[in-house]
Amino acid sequence: MFDTVPGLMQEIRARFAHVESCPFQGERVFFENAGGALTLTSVVDTSAKFAAIPDNQGRANPAAAALMEVIARARTDMATFFNAPDGQFIVGESGTELLFRLIGTACLGTGSGRVLGSTLEHPASRSAADRYAPLSGKTHVLVAHDDATGSVDAAAYAPQITADTRVATILHTSPVTGMGVDVAAIAAEIRAIAPEAYIIVDGIQHAAHGRIDLSAYGIDGYVISPYKAFSRHGYGLAWLSDRLAALPHDSLMNAPGSPWELGTRDTGAYATFSDVVAYFDWLGGQFTDSADPRTRIEAAGRAIHAHEARLTNAMLHGTGNLPGLAQIAGVTVIGGIDNPRREGLVSFTLDGMPAAEIVDRLNAAGIRTHTRKADHYSGNILTPLGMEAAVRVSLCHYNTEQEVALFLAAMHDIVGCGRQANGSGS
């Protein structure tokens, strides 16, 4: 898709820091985006600017007023980006911390019954539900995800939905399998049986790939970690429906409006997310003539999805004269080869070679990937598959097919060396 606009890929890559090289390693291909995407250069500049400002919000001076305007503008930008005409946005310590707060509040603010989630979920939401369900007199029920597809759907949730489901959690995209989930369909299934349930979504892995539409989901909470969506570390971002926000929650006594944010938040965090929204707006403007920001953001999401699908297809099926992972004997791809749920991520194993060794060899070849182990982060996905670990290759839209070719060339070298070492080479 990006190739239809001359020079666009160069413009995209110019907007990110450290696209082609690591300040510690030198030149490398960055395929570790699920661990934290590249940072917009505008975010770097904005962070430095606001880090130097000594003033606080809420004071009677021009600087304080300017800071409040930045926050108000950022919240408006967030509403456009997420397509959230109501509710409120807050920032916190991290996406994980905010999932704990939202899930904990929903559990403690409702009566006995069920907290419903799935085995696909990251421990951020599963751990929060596991902690707060018993504290609020509830049973935590987990829907089994599908090992074959690496995802979960409404049909799997349906048998476990009961009228006393008080809280439900959904993972939008798995950071291990890379597969997306139809949030709207699952939420609709829940609402049909338990219309008053509070539904909270972990969107942390999904956000970088665009196409978020809160108005279409019928949910009560959505959480992301902006450092995985081209911003920076040090804060999380959450949207809360009006009814979730109205539940009793941690806040300062007698504070007007019963705010959710605890203490003075970093204005720079808000400002850097405005940079993210501005980037999506700019990117979408390359594919539509619309003057409407939301329309441009939607166009960006479609273009990102199409480009990343092209990259993962090349990784799996090959590019140029390089065969893809699907043609390498002994490779197992989690979630299957041709899976329409895939969002810019391929996790795989190779018979006879530990995942950590593959990652080390790729790193030596200048290809940054990551090992996912069957631990507290990924054991829910890998253990049922009988895997101790897997190689995760995670892409974003600023990656190129040429970088995929470098990865495949390195993999073929690794496989060839491995077979020779095992005595099976010629």
Counting structural domains, the number is 2
* Span between termini: 41 Å
Radius of gyration: 22 Å
Record the strand order, biggest sheet.
4-10-9-8-7-5-6
Q: Shape from CA axes?
A: globular
Q: Tell me, what is the CATH class of the largest domain?
A: Alpha Beta
- Tally of alpha and pi helices: 13
Structural class: alpha/beta
Order of helices and strands: HEEEHHEHEHEHEHEEEHHHEEHEEHEH
Describe the largest sheet: 7 strands, mixed
- Within CATH, the superfamily of the largest domain carries the name Type I PLP-dependent aspartate aminotransferase-like (Major domain)
Number of strands: 15
Keywords: Lyase, Pyridoxal phosphate
Protein name: Selenocysteine lyase/cysteine desulfurase
GO molecular function: lyase activity
Domain Aminotransferase class V: 29-245, 303-406
Topology:
Elements: H1 8-14, E1 21-22, E2 26-27, E3 29-30, H2 41-51, H3 62-82, E4 88-92, H4 95-108, E5 113-118, H5 123-135, E6 138-143, H6 154-157, E7 165-171, H7 183-193, E8 198-202, E9 221-224, E10 236-240, H8 242-245, H9 267-284, H10 293-317, E11 331-333, E12 345-350, H11 355-364, E13 367-368, E14 370-373, H12 379-382, E15 389-394, H13 401-421
Parallel strand pairs: 3-13, 5-6, 5-7, 7-8, 8-9
Antiparallel strand pairs: 1-2, 4-10, 9-10, 11-12, 12-15, 14-15
Helix pairs in contact: 2-9, 3-9, 4-5, 9-10, 10-13
